[in-house]
From TrEMBL:
Gene name linked to the record: pyrB
Family (UniProt): Belongs to the aspartate/ornithine carbamoyltransferase superfamily. ATCase family.
Role summary: Catalyzes the condensation of carbamoyl phosphate and aspartate to form carbamoyl aspartate and inorganic phosphate, the committed step in the de novo pyrimidine nucleotide biosynthesis pathway.
Subunit structure: Heterododecamer (2C3:3R2) of six catalytic PyrB chains organized as two trimers (C3), and six regulatory PyrI chains organized as three dimers (R2).
Organism: Nitratifractor salsuginis (strain DSM 16511 / JCM 12458 / E9I37-1)
Protein known as: Aspartate carbamoyltransferase
Length: 303
């Protein structure tokens, strides 16, 4: 049984297959490959894009989906997450999609190896389908030769699971990643090039991935005033000028703090393309885990 806790569980061939399947799903109406399959979602943190994107992806492939609202579940009566998961698995779904604030929750459930577990975001550790859809969006824009592409990740990097997953996947694909952030947002340990000023990388990058401040993960307020942060890190017309830098963001975007209103309307801004692509990439991930991976061995975390 194969799970998706982060993309390091995927072979190079599987990543290629996800990108190819996503392209096929995008250009041709898909057959109901997952007809008769049932997925359960368990989102312990809020989501607009990921949860609805998984639901659209599942339904486009003919699968059914049940959402358990954790705020109304028996976890509130003291049932452990493992027991909740085991009870859901007793209903024989074909996969469980989980988002949680704890970094190790998806891997703990995957180790129980009852149904394929798909991580839809865990703490600041990993958000694999976001990384895959970001990679797909780069492939779509730049073509297959993305080795050597220069990507700067800007913002609250230390608290971002998107940054963590993007960095691991992009480096594996030969993409050069640099980090731009004020000190409190910078990872304390990293072997990647680090910059405090956005101006220092503007002529050195092909892509900027902007991130919002992950306020829900700050133990105490880091900045009193995000307009002062925006003066240095917001992606604006003045900063971009006529450079052909592609702008991405996983969402939700804090307007005029992360990216200005004008740049959100600019053709260089891929934010809604990322969301559109997310559906096709998640269709490809569901196909891989629910159909294709069945023929492989039973190592719980790896093929
Ligand atoms: N990109 C992303 O994870 O967005 P949501 O939190 O809305 O799912």
């Amino acid at each position: 049984m194969q799970h998706l806790v982060d993309t390091d569980q995927l072979s190079d061939a599987q990543i290629r297959q996800i990108l190819e399947d996503a392209s096929r799903f995008k250009t041709r109406k898909p057959a109901p490959l997952l007809s008769g399959k049932l997925l359960i979602t368990l989102f312990f943190e809020n989501s607009t894009r990921t949860r609805s994107s998984f639901e659209v992806a599942a339904k486009r492939l003919g699968a059914d989906m049940v959402h358990l609202d954790p705020s109304r579940s028996s976890t509130k009566k003291g049932e452990t997450l493992e027991d909740t998961f085991a009870n859901l698995c007793a209903m024989e779904p074909d996969g469980v999609i989980i988002r949680h604030s704890e970094n190790d929750t998806p891997s703990r459930l995957a180790e129980m190896d009852q149904v394929p577990v798909i991580n839809a975001g865990a703490g600041n550790y990993a958000h694999p389908t976001q990384a895959l859809l970001d990679l797909y969006t780069l492939y779509e824009w730049f073509g297959e030769e993305i080795e050597g592409l220069r990507v700067a990740i800007v913002g609250d990097i230390v608290n971002s699971r998107v940054a963590a997953s993007d960095i691991r996947l992009f480096r594996r694909m030969g993409i050069e990643v640099s980090l731009v952030a004020p000190k409190p947002f910078m990872p304390p340990v990293s072997d990647l090039p680090q910059f405090e000023r956005l101006e220092d990388i503007m002529d050195e990058v092909d892509v900027i991935i902007s991130l919002r401040a992950q306020l829900e993960r700050h133990k105490k307020p880091i900045f009193d005033d995000y307009s002062a942060y925006a003066e240095h890190y917001c992606i604006t017309e003045d900063r971009l000028e006529d450079r052909g830098i592609v702008i991405m963001h996983p969402g939700p975007v804090m307007r005029n703090i992360d990216i200005s209103d004008e740049i959100l309307e600019d053709p260089r801004c891929m934010v809604l393309d990322q969301v559109r692509n997310g559906v096709y990439v998640r269709m490809a991930v569901l196909k891989l885990l629910l159909l294709d991976a069945k023929e492989y061995g039973s190592d719980p975390l790896h093929r």
